[in-house]
Write a structure and sequence with these properties.
alpha+beta; five-stranded antiparallel beta sheet; globular
Length: about 625
């Protein structure tokens, strides 16, 4: 799961008399850093405006320029260095040598790899992407820019001329400052209404900034209705007075009016009724361009025009985006290209949301058949299970089972983890778990069960069965997603599987005899009533890697009060920064603290310890099985 990027609140450091303000933050070196940097710079400008440190004239233009510059510099730092990024924004007042400017500094911790500002690289391989071209944009916008090297640090800086956004001194008070701060929120809110009047602003930097932020908002949405809602709020009132989004049905139903948005919120309900009663129609040949349409104008006595854009992914139509403008009517040439680009991004976001929904539906259906409806109760043993897939919409790679092995009073248990997640992992799980049950009930011993399962995972027959299952899953996922959107399953599929498998036989005097084997899985632990903890098996090779492996098993007794803990790597490899939960025998120490607890109490205690180990939610499936002899 992708880690969410956050940034610290803006701190303004004012130096009396020199009209200087500074905002600093640190960003992780991941793809979300640029988005966080853009929000940070806008927030800093909003605070400076609110405090009266700059005049409001030209602030919108300055914000657009700053967003573009910081986006390019942070992206370059992440791509080339991959380290945490330090961002500084500073207002410098005018001096004898330099005019007033907004200074942007982006620092990374890999100074040995210089940025390529001219886009040329003598050693470049033809066809490979070239980086650093964005610095040409930085050079065009900045009064000056450059690179400063310090020990362990490389800083790329840029000075943006204020162009009328004069620095007005240290933090002032009084009514004048409060009046100057009235527009602070407008920097972070949708663009003011005047942007609709002067569409020439959208031909350059304003358009680039708008599309960059729109892409950030749309790309992470997994629900098509949320995409429609965001589209309306992004466009109104920036480029239109009202907006409506129709989405086509998946299997032929009539298009539905997914979202209506109006600059005047009191007019939304009336606009919805008008459009629902008489929706516009686009000709079949209309694809990506703007198409003027006739609609019943939603306001009495109102005048204006409407233009529609078809939402597509590849060759498939997903719906329609409709924009209405009152004054001036019509969409000028300056804004048409921007709107066409925006409509393409909305179509891609809707297609991605539908693909995710389709895959999640398939995964839920698969998941219901992968895991037992209920866990069997073993005589003389209390058991407790925790299973938490990292993504509730997708089938996880972890699986478990407890079942009777037929005659002889034997009970079998398993806890496994298939490489990956989603339909591919679900297919392997759906084949491996029934095979384990069959082999156990045929009387094979623990080590023999692993030997034969390893052969099955490498067998051509299983590959054919898996390919057929993946074809069904892949067809469902790809339908309607456009050219190239379906997962490709050409070539052999990896079927690596870690597994903890064992048998329990109740003993006449209490307790159970346990025989188990561990194939590439986190080792099970035994907790004695006195709090001592020891491993209960030896580590062996993953299943499905190489042929002719002779697996071995270990046999021991679980006496009354003894507890056996089995976990997947979602527990042991849970991360907090550079540390993992099982570093320095962390799992064993956590289990030792559970002495005297019931099976349910041990499961709850370990689960809580795993969740509180890091602030972020777990990014891997989490499964643990507790067996306690009575």
């Amino acid at each position: 799961m992708q880690q969410e990027t956050t940034h610290r609140s803006v701190h303004l450091l004012s130096q009396r008399g020199d009209a200087r303000s500074t905002a600093r933050t640190s960003l992780p070196g991941n793809p979300l850093a640029a988005s966080a940097a853009r929000r940070f710079v806008r927030a800093a400008l909003a605070d400076w405006t609110r405090l009266g440190m700059v005049t409001t004239r030209g602030t919108d233009r300055l914000a657009d320029d700053a967003v573009l510059v910081v986006s390019e510099l942070v992206t370059n730092a992440v791509v080339h260095a991959g380290t945490n990024v330090e961002l500084l924004a500073r207002l410098d007042g005018a001096t004898e040598d330099d005019p007033a400017a907004l200074v942007i500094e982006v620092s990374d911790h890999h100074p040995t790899r210089a940025l390529r500002g001219d886009g040329s690289d003598p050693g470049a391989v033809p066809g490979e992407p070239e980086y650093g071209r964005g610095l040409q944009l930085v050079a065009a916008l900045a009064a000056s820019w450059g690179i400063t090297y310090r020990p362990g640090l490389k800083t790329v800086w840029s000075r943006l001329p204020l162009d009328g956004c004069a620095v007005v001194g240290a933090v002032p008070g009084g009514e004048a400052a409060r009046q100057r701060g009235l527009r602070a929120a407008e920097i972070l809110a949708p663009a003011p209404r005047r942007a609709v009047r002067d569409d020439r602003e959208w031909t350059g930097r304003g358009a680039l900034s708008f599309l960059a932020e729109a892409s950030d908002l749309l790309a992470g949405q997994l629900d098509e209705d949320m995409v429609a809602a965001l589209a309306g709020q992004l466009l109104v009132p920036r480029l239109a007075d009202w907006c409506a989004v129709w989405l086509d049905g998946e299997a032929g139903p009539a298009p539905r009016l997914a979202r209506v948005w109006h600059a005047d919120e009191s007019a939304i309900e009336g606009l919805h009724d008008v459009l629902l009663k008489d929706p516009p129609r686009l000709p079949d040949e209309a694809r990506g361009g703007a198409v003027p349409v006739q609609v019943a104008w939603p306001r009495e006595g109102g005048d204006g025009s409407a233009v529609a854009f078809r939402l597509t992914v590849g060759a498939r139509s997903l719906g329609m985006l409709l924009l209405g403008r009152e004054s001036p009517p019509g969409v000028p040439d300056e804004a048409t290209a921007l709107l066409e680009d925006f409509a393409r991004r909305v179509g891609l976001a809707v297609g991605a949301a539908r693909q995710y929904t389709r895959q999640a539906t398939i995964s839920r259906v698969l998941q219901r058949g992968l895991l037992p409806a209920q866990v069997a109760q073993i005589p003389g043993v209390d058991s407790s299970l925790v299973y938490e897939p990292s993504d509730e919409g997708l089938a996880g790679g972890d699986f478990y089972d407890i079942f009777p092995a037929g005659n002889g009073g034997r009970w079998c248990f398993m806890l496994g983890d298939v490489q990956g997640s989603g339909p591919e992992a679900a297919v392997v799980t759906g084949l491996a778990r029934p095979w384990l049950r069959l082999l156990a009930r045929e009387g094979y011993q623990v080590a023999e069960v692993l030997d034969r399962l390893n052969g099955l995972l490498l067998d051509d027959a299983m590959e054919a069965a898996e390919a057929a299952a993946l074809m069904v899953a892949g067809t469902g996922i790809a339908t309607g997603a456009g050219t190239g959107s379906g997962a490709s399953h050409d070539g052999p599929q990896s079927r690596f599987l870690s597994l903890l498998y064992g048998e329990l036989t109740p003993l006449p005097g209490g307790g159970v005899r346990c025989t188990l084997a561990c194939a590439g899985h986190p080792l099970p632990l035994v907790l004695r009533p006195d709090g001592t903890v020891r491993p209960a098996a030896a580590s062996q090779l993953l299943l499905g890697v190489v042929e002719d492996v002779a697996y071995e098993s270990q046999t021991f007794e679980l006496k009354p009060g003894d507890t056996l803990l089995c976990v997947t790597d979602g527990v042991t490899e849970r991360r907090s920064g550079q540390r993992m939960f099982d570093d320095a025998d962390g799992l064993a120490r956590a289990l030792a603290d559970c002495a005297g607890l019931t099976a349910q109490g041990v499961a709850d205690c370990i689960r809580q310890a795993v969740h509180t180990f890091a602030e972020a939610p777990p990014d891997d499936d989490l499964a643990l099985l507790v067996l306690q002899a009575r």
